[in-house]
């Protein structure tokens, strides 16, 4: 459900790197970052997680969440 939103933001926001991980294919990574629900979003800055949140949201809400960490 969130994949098209994430893809659209990846195209719109050239100043950030946006990626997706399939936790079924990368269970060790999911465990490393304590991903307990899908979708989980993590914002990294300087190699550190600065925000982590879960749940579906609008494109605008996700964009605002990203922009507050610039």
Mean pLDDT over the full residue set: 95
Strand order of the largest sheet: 1-2
Q: What is the end-to-end distance? A: 26 Å
Strand content: 15-25%
Anisotropy-based shape = globular
Rounded to an integer, what's the Rg over CA atoms?
12 Å
Task: Work out the helix count.
Answer: 3
Overall structural domain count: 1
Low-confidence stretches: none
Specify the helix fraction band. Answer: 25-40%
CATH topology call: Glutaredoxin
What's the β-strand tally?
A: 2
What can be said about the biggest beta sheet?
2 strands, antiparallel
* Structural class by SSE content: alpha+beta
- CATH-assigned homologous superfamily: Glutaredoxin
CATH level 1 class label: Alpha Beta
Order of helices and strands: HHEEH
CATH architecture: 3-Layer(aba) Sandwich
Could you provide a short overview of the structure?
The protein is 36% helix and 19% strand. The protein is built from three helices and two strands.
Account of the 3D structure:
It is a single chain. By secondary structure, the chain is an alpha+beta fold. The chain has a single domain, classed as 3-Layer(aba) Sandwich (Glutaredoxin). It contains three helices and two strands. It has a two-stranded antiparallel ribbon with strand order 1-2. It is globular. The model has no long low-confidence stretch (mean pLDDT 95).
């Amino acid at each position: 459900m969130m994949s098209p939103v994430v893809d659209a933001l990846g195209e719109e926001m050239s100043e950030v790197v946006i990626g997706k991980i399939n936790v079924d294919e990368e269970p060790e990574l999911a465990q490393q970052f304590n991903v307990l629900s899908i979708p989980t979003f993590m914002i990294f800055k300087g190699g550190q997680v600065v925000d982590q949140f879960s749940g579906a949201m609008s494109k605008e809400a996700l964009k605002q969440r990203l922009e507050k960490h610039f």
